[in-house]
Amino acid sequence: MRIQLIEQDPALLEALKEACQRAEAQVLTDIPSDERGLAHWQPQCDLVIAGQHPAFSDLAALNRVVWPIPLAALLPTTRPQSVMQAARSGAVDVCDREADAAHLADWVGQLCARRQNAKAKAGQNDYFHSEACAKMRGLEDTIGRVARTDSTLLIVGETGTGKELAARQVHRISSRGDKPIVTVNCAAIPETLIESELFGYEKGAFTGATANRLGLIEAADGGTLFLDEVGELPLAAQARLLRFMQEGEIRRIGSVTSKRVDVRLICATHRNLAELAARGEFREDLFYRIDVLRLNIPPLRARDGDIVAMAEWFIEKQAAKLRVPAKPLSEYSRDSLAAHRWPGNVRELQNVIERSLVMSRGAELHITLSETGSPKTSRQGPSDPPDEVASIENASGELSLEDYFQRFVLQHQDAMNETELAQKLGISRKCLWERRQRFGIPRQKQKTA
Question: Could you tell me which CATH number the domain at 134-298 has?
């Protein structure tokens, strides 16, 4: 817990420091001394406690500077009018400046406790926090360190490991957390549209451009741009992305002027970009530009002790979403989950839990996994109800459709583009891309001359 103190009275500042130390909080007291520094100041803390200081005479102005960090105020009087004015200015709590040291210590302790509870509750709602896996604890520490900078970040990991969640966590705890994060799946956008989607276009730039269009990079101005599956970007779009990274400027299609943008870039891929660069399928100069900071997301099978705990977390989340009772895992299910290889990683585990919650009829949740991860199975768990296993076995005939998909794509991908393949299969381009990832059939890209 880090607390930024803003107070010009040395005696009161010392009392606040002692109160923070009693609450086991780290104390920060440095603030910029010039107006330019104050205008761009972004304190790296969890809570701001402000009293009287010549740099911040207006509580509302200070709140705009430190937002979204909570702000607590020390007031010369705690009359109702003063307290209401402080609340309207954005203060989450107030205390009398004339209070004794014991009262200050209690107040600071309560502020810290409320802040920590709020952070813990928010984290539990959105993310699974690993307690058993040393790799994930190290990853969380690395996320905290890279979030403190604006350097370009590359997130690598297998499909389904949670690369987008990691990107959103980096953005959320960074200084840009109150600004937008724009997510782009580079593989889901047709090659002919990728440049106009990223950079935008001017009215009349091409047939059908009937109005100006804001690009996704420009939409992320001040915030974060997350390029998922960056390895699928066409070479032409890679060249324009490289220029944007070098110059910090973009130029809409059809425009003759450039515009400066302030964007933190986070990229993710499940492919080996170094190998793609060696084969000429990815620009080597762009690879070195985006590979500044790196997060390696471990596959689920490498996260010792996390699988069963995460399954139980998913049971609670999915049960609430599906409006069904949350059931405890049977011992056989626990053994099956721990022994499985999880080729689809966290996404596969989530789907298995959701499917099992819908199909299960007993008092416990029974899960039996095949080698491919589908709840099937040819062998029945010792405590699995017979009708439940039979209902799952009846659905196993869908595998022939998967075989047909793989054969069709492999036979026609050289003669058809992605749009034509998707139309022939009767699915969307995004669905085609997702199935390619699941079956390990990367998209064939044409090299430019």
Answer: 3.40.50.300
